Amino acid sequence: MPLRIVRNDITKMKVDAIVNAANSTLLGGGGVDGCIHRAAGPALLAECRTLGGCETGNAKITGAGNLPCRYVIHTVGPIWRGGTHGEREKLTSCYRTSLELAREHQCESVAFPLISSGIYGYPKDQALQVAAEAISAFLMEHEMQVFLVIFDRKAYQISSRLFEDIAEYIDDHYAEAHTDRGRLLMAPSFSDTGTPWPSYKSAASLREALAHIDESFSEMLLRKINERGMKDSECYKKANIDRKLFSKIRGDRLYRPSKPTAAAFAIALELSLEETRELLGKAGFALSRSSKFDIIIEYFIEHGNYNIFEINEALFAFEQNLLGG
Question: Annotated catalytic residue: which of 16, 33, 180, 242?
Fold first, then answer.
């Protein structure tokens, strides 16, 4: 998946580059900055001394010392001063310039912390929104695997209003006798007429049945893309799906995606709730009132919000699987 929110220690991420939320001296400090310098060892500080510091909103790149990545990209986020001193523009620039540096150095995977959300005081929900918007804008133009690394739950926060609204929606719709523990629920194996699929005693009879199968998930997906007048690349990027996975789906009419992948395409295509159920059904899934994952998807569709990164932020906040490949 091109953008993933993960809970981890950024110094342990096995990616091409990690991003350091540095101060303007680039000589180490507290928080993430201090952790990265301690894990990298003295070689990182020695190289940073040659860079002459860095301006807010800009980024510079070094080797990684003892870290498992190839590079460390150092960027200086803005100090929060109420939001009226260009903080948003400077924070957006941190992500954009860091990603451009990574691309220039042929990095295929990059891990970011939530820049400026620690001692610099940028409100966590707003910092998260800026990160998602800046990264997603870059990924619409380029191929790269990007991780947004959250060290612990306290470091992550969507807006309290959105969280409370979704929580209330879940309370109103969540089935009392549920079995959901973050699992993805699969629809029963019934035909369109409501009768169970028959068993097949020979390969020939199975091939004959498959030859007359209804429109598959892949076929319906490609038809919907054409009906929307979208390019393939626009669709899989909006779905937060890797190009290679999309190629597999396009090349195999009987490809069976995971539920998060199927739901991601429904969001990318901006399908109605009824159309979403139909597309999921082609992959063998259903929307259930006993699944928080499903209810959150319903919430965003009913509110006309098809921003997959905002949906994933909410899913992460409620400890559900994220949309995408």
Answer: 33
